[in-house]
Amino acid sequence: MNSADLRKKFLEFFKKNEHTVVPSSSLLPTDPSVLFTTAGMQQFKPYYTGDADAMKDFGSLSTASVQKSMRTSDIEEVGDDTHDTFFEMLGNFSFGGYWKKEAITYAFEFIASVVGLEISYVTVFEGSDVVPKDEESKEIWKSLGVTDIREEGMEDVFWGPTGNNGPCGPTTEIYCKNANGIDVEIWNIVFNEFFCDGSREQLLAGEAKLTPLEKKGIDTGMGLERLAMVAQKTTNIFDTDLFLPILDQVPDADLRLRRIVADHLRSAIFLIADGVLPSNKDQGYILRRLLRRAMTYGRMHHFKKEIVDNIVEATLSIYEGTYKELEEKKEHVLSVIHEEGRKFGETLEKGLKELEKMENIDAKSAFFLYQTFGVPFDILKELSGKEINQKAFEDELKKHQELSKTASAGMFKGGLADHDEKTIRLHTAHHLLLSALQELFGKEVKQRGSNINQERLRIDFSFSRKLTDQEKKHIEDMVNEKIQQGLDVVKREMPKEEAEKIGAEMEFGVKYNNIVSVYFIVPMPEASRIRDGEAIGKDIMDKVFSKEFCGGPHVKNTSELGHFKIVKEEASSQGVRRIKAILE
Ligand code: GLY
Questions:
Q1: How far is the CA of 215 from the centre of ligand 1 (A)?
Q2: Spatial distance between the Cα atoms of 366 and 358, rounded to a whole number of angstroms
């Protein structure tokens, strides 16, 4: 069965079973908390939560679709037998309509009768502290004659949420064998029973709350490339009709490299057709990364730039009649890829020459090549023939990012800052918060990042565990007390050594000049003394609540701030917590 047949048969099967067929949405989702559409359910999120009415919009409580999707978290795995970045997802969905029995039976019938495949085994949810074991699905599979039923946990058979929150629930997965006899997961059937008020990471860390959804839902996802691999009896996704014509356009080279070039250019074509342009941010950054990886491999093997045109042609022919935007945007797609190639080509050439001269690539030189010439790190790692210490490279990168983040935010150096009133108030509250954290947990708590906009402040700080509700309340009370006391905020320019001596907080990763400005938050009498240029002795210091190296701007007095409230406390990275807070 070719892939066009698989798509067609899938939609026909579900249409016959009273599903409304809905077209694929864009690769760029409306949900701002995710970069790309990664699953078919994403365009249906409001129907699960009750924010939209499926009956009204689709004339049915069930829908089916073939969804363009993009997942780049495993980008370095691309080139093996099963990983790609762009893929199509076949899915059927129910919003308060049918439930487990129908969902499992449909999947079984489609796989076994329509496509004629043998199911190797299935998985069901083994249960957790909060969600019971899925006995019901187990019984349904048994009644259909499936005997190999494996129980798995939260990491593997519990879906969602996508983004910052959303529907989620236990899943059951179907595995079939490919031509090598290797079991491949092809279909994931999700039982959306809960609304999760946090991200998937928070859910797995036990930091998010599950609330039963009013109407239970079904959400399924079956990757077309993997289904094609099993149905077309190939050993890998690249030998299916979804990839082979593209791969044929990539000149002879190492197989993995050819697959990477084919995958990355195919993804780039779809992204550009959906409106993404290469940039250094968000979706544009991912597109740039895909293109640069493909181009670097191409350059290293002296591929001619005409192969881009051939790959675009091959991609268009595979999807002819399925995604008309590709044909419509063909010229635009070609010009974006060639333009990026032209811009990147020159620097890359220099970078590769530099690289040739180097006897050894260590983390520092890798960072130099990456930073100056844009040579992707993962490729450098491969070229060097030995391990570049990834951690050391990442530390270099982080150092650089911290510096540019602070510079571009401008919050702590003055100059570039967003000086509107709300941001300024939050900036002062940010100082109070850091001091409150140190008062409660000790001076070893250090700021590790920050971001302020008109709505909220965000602080990352070194601390190794979740804060308790009492601790959060205590911190809020402390900050609000300082607001009520009406403390003055006063600036003093001073030599760096002196500021260090009095223990003023420095921003992590920032290099300071010899003369720095320090903001003090302190009661009125002492504030006047600081303003008047008096030496800052112990008697003043005892009264100071906060002191930070900072360029401002700030409010004059904390009484201008309003009521301080923590809205979120979460893990940011290993040993670093993140607080988001607002002023009401
Ligand atoms: N939403 C189900 C899946 O993507 O596997």
A1: 19
A2: 10
Q: Which among 243, 282, 281, 239 is positioned nearest to 265, based on CA atoms?
A: 243
> Which residue type sits at 421?
E
DSSP conformation class of 33 = T
Nearest CA to ligand 1 atom 5: 221
What is the C-alpha to C-alpha distance for residues 492 and 540, in angstroms, rounded to an integer? 13
Nearest atom in ligand 1 to the alpha carbon of residue 38 is 4
User: Ligand 1: which atom is nearest the Cα of residue 41?
Assistant: 1
Cβ–Cβ under 8 Å, residues 180 and 98 = no
pLDDT tens track for 313-346 = 999 999 999 999 999 999 999 999 999 999 888 8
147 is written with which tokens? 């005997």
Write the CB contacts of 397 (distance below 8 Å, at least 6 apart in sequence).
Answer: 367, 370
For residue range 215-259, what is the model confidence (pLDDT) as tens digits? Answer: 999 999 999 999 999 999 999 999 999 999 999 999 888 899 999
- Which of ligand 1's atoms lies nearest the C-alpha of 220? 2
Q: Which residues contact 517 (CB under 8 A, 6 or more apart)?
A: 414, 491, 492, 493, 494, 549, 550, 551, 552
Model pLDDT for residues 434-469, shown as the tens digit of each residue: 999 999 999 889 988 888 887 899 999 999 899 999
Mean of pLDDT over the chain: 89
Residues framing ligand 1 (Cβ under 6 A): 39, 41, 159, 188, 190, 219, 221
CA 196 / ligand 1 centre spacing (Å): 16
Contacts 24+ apart (CB under 8 A), 526-532: 527/487, 527/488, 527/490, 530/490, 530/492, 531/490, 531/492
pLDDT cut 70: percent of the chain above it:
95
How far is residue 227 from each of residues 102, 148, 239, 263, 372, measured CA to CA in Å? Answer: 21, 20, 12, 17, 42
The protein residue with its alpha carbon nearest to ligand 1, atom 3, reads: 221
pTM score above 0.85: no
Index of the ligand 1 atom closest to the CA of residue 89: 4
User: 63 CA to middle of ligand 1, Å?
Assistant: 15
Residue nearest to atom 2 of ligand 1 (CA): 221
DSSP 8-state symbol, 126: -
